[in-house]
Write a structure and sequence with these properties.
The chain has 291 residues and is α+β, with helices and mostly antiparallel strands. The protein is built from eight helices and four strands; from the N terminus they run H-H-H-E-H-E-E-H-H-E-H-H.
Length: 291
């Protein structure tokens, strides 16, 4: 195997190892960045829903409760969850893959009943009272989604409607009945706010960026390899080849050949100078033998 081939093999192995390390690190970094982007969207959606809930509870509900119809007909607009969920439904007209749900194990309105994976999240919060939020991933009908969940603790305003049927507004009992949504205890975790944000688009963008980066890396490595090959050929191989050819001629008796050019102070120059000295010494030795 020639010297240039050996050099190319070493360079290829080093570039392959380095490329694998760089690509693996970069892919992980891009996926992590995409996940953080989705998480920021989920946090924004959660903050928006919480703001609507707070506004409804502090400003809108007291006004609606003064409406005479509130005592005859239950007005769902007085419930913070109703406002948050319906506001989010308007958002879903433009972003149908985004979901917001206030899931509970024992809801008054069946629409709020938790599905299997939501029930697991609520039980997790119940088993970990100090946990303020939970972030997870799941496979939805449209692909992978990231969800952000926060616990909902039963407070005095909740118990006005959910402690005992006898204490609940008559209009609410008329609308939803007295079988569900009661027995809540103050301070207990009864539900969870859950925002789900699709990950497919950010992950596709990260994958596309990763593939583009791989192309750039391969092109860069190819250019670097070509430049290194040219450098090795002109700086190392060609001068050594000149010395080798001169040595071959000297071995065949051509001892009066002109000296090789020796420029610089590197190892190749030292080798050329040493060959010139050897050629002079060989010529003197042969001349002495001839005499």
């Amino acid at each position: 195997m020639k010297l240039l081939s050996k050099f190319n093999l070493i360079v290829f192995v080093l570039f392959a190892i380095g490329g694998l390390i760089i690509s693996d690190f970069t892919k992980g970094l891009l996926i992590h960045s995409a996940r953080n982007e989705v998480l920021r969207e989920a946090e924004l959606m959660m903050a928006s829903a919480s703001s609507v809930r707070d506004y409804t509870a502090s400003d809108l509900a007291p006004l609606l409760e003064q409406n005479p119809q509130h005592h005859e007909k239950f007005l769902p607009e007085t419930v913070p969850a109703f406002a948050a969920i319906n506001t989010f439904q308007k958002l879903r007209e433009m972003y149908p893959d985004y979901t917001y749900h206030e899931a509970t194990l024992n809801p008054t309105n069946p629409v709020h009943r938790a599905v299997d994976w939501e029930s697991d999240v609520i039980r997790y919060f119940a088993d970990h009272p100090g946990q303020k939020q939970f972030i997870g991933e799941r496979i939805s009908a449209t692909g992978p989604s990231l969800y952000l969940a926060r616990p909902m603790v039963a407070g005095p305003p909740c118990l006005e409607c959910h402690s005992r049927p006898a204490l609940a507004p008559a209009a609410m009992i008329t609308r939803y009945g007295s079988d569900n949504g009661f027995g809540w205890k103050e301070g207990s975790i009864v539900a969870a706010q859950i925002v789900s944000v699709p990950m497919s688009v950010p992950i596709e963008n990260a994958t596309r960026a990763f593939h583009l980066l791989l192309v750039y890396i391969l092109v860069t490595l190819f250019v670097v390899a070509v430049v290194l090959d040219l450098g090795v050929f002109f700086v190392v191989i060609r001068p050594i080849k000149v010395v080798a050819e001169a040595a071959d001629r000297a071995s065949k008796g051509e001892i009066n050949a002109p000296r090789l050019a020796s420029k610089g102070k590197d190892e190749i120059a030292a080798l050329t100078a040493a060959f010139n000295r050897m050629q002079v010494s060989l010529a003197k030795a042969l001349k002495m033998l001839g005499n």
